[in-house]
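Q: Structure for this?
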Amino acid sequence: MEDRMHRISGRSQLLLVEKSAGMFSTVLCNGYGVEKQLPAATPAKDLIAATEVDYQEYRKGIKHLREEHPLFEDRIDISVADFEDFVAEALLLPSMLQKIDPVSFFVLGELLHQSLQTEDDSSASFLLNAAAELLYILEEPIRVQTCLRNVFEMTFDGMERAKQRERFEKLCRVYPDIGGLCDPAALPDVEPGHRTFAVNSIFGLRLLELALYFQQDNQWIARCDYCWGWFIPKTKKVTRYCDRVTDGYPCKQRGARFKRNLVEEQDGALKICNQLRDRMYARLLRWQDAAPSERDGLIPMDYDQYDAWSENARLARIEYLKGKLTAEEFLRRIDMTQALTSYEADKAELVEETDWQHFVAGRYSFDPEMHYPEVMQILDLRVPEPKWELHTADDLRREDQKGHQSLRERYGKS
Ligand SMILES: [Zn+2]
């Protein structure tokens, strides 16, 4: 897997130098020596920062180059002048990262330079392949971040009470390839304090930091219930909220208020019934919208299955409302796919992973930016007067995260 990630070669490399126990500085070395030394941070802190780099504008730059550049226009001749213009534009793109992500800026400079050393035969296919290669290299920081975000999602979400070892074991279960590459037991046996590590790719750097993170026990990575950002709790006690200010209020303050809504709302079998229905309906939409060849990662749900589920739930609901079924019996009846942990109404929670978690667990390269179309038109047949509605990529993601999402997204709008 790591082979698919690009490596810098020659004398260039990335060093991770331990300045004091547990504090590492990333050092960018080109063929002549040290180019830049970044401020020291703990692996946990540096990893969190890496998941948060905003590549939106940079992504747009790459997309523009890929979709608008005349080099890729459909025609018989490919002009060398177009290729040269393409290269000039490609070489400019990394400058967008210089401030926000100096590591990627440095690595891209090296990789693009390396790639352009290939012997040029000026044939059309050579030029197109060379251009495609440059685009692939430019996307490297995005691929690494996507993978790292997915690793976080699978390793640190809902693991507040776990030990470091258990977090690492969870990662190994979900993504065995990645777990194997950041095993703390595989690190050289050197006394912490003055260690130096060398790697030659951005991905390698993140894997090394993950290994060093799992090796220590002073800092844990946790998810804020309110904003869903990653943070390092100050103590080992379970800490639900980070110190960020989101939408003008500290996460702690807003979070505590919304948490009360959540408790009241989750109390009750009808609420669970609604959640289950939403889940089944979302599945139906996705199954219907996907071409047969795209259905591999999906849970099957056709109209017949959906109808059977809702008719059963409708009848059970009537009986429950009439008092003929207890809450427990009601939940047992509607839970045709065994999605509930318990049939006590105030304890039942959906344990089945959300569609979002299902996608992330399926592929560490799952990239929401590519997965969701910018806008999709959906006809909601659950409402009395169905109308076509536009759903943005954000709406679609939220729909997939329903049942397990930040308090902010759950209640933020109301
Ligand atoms: Zn927060």
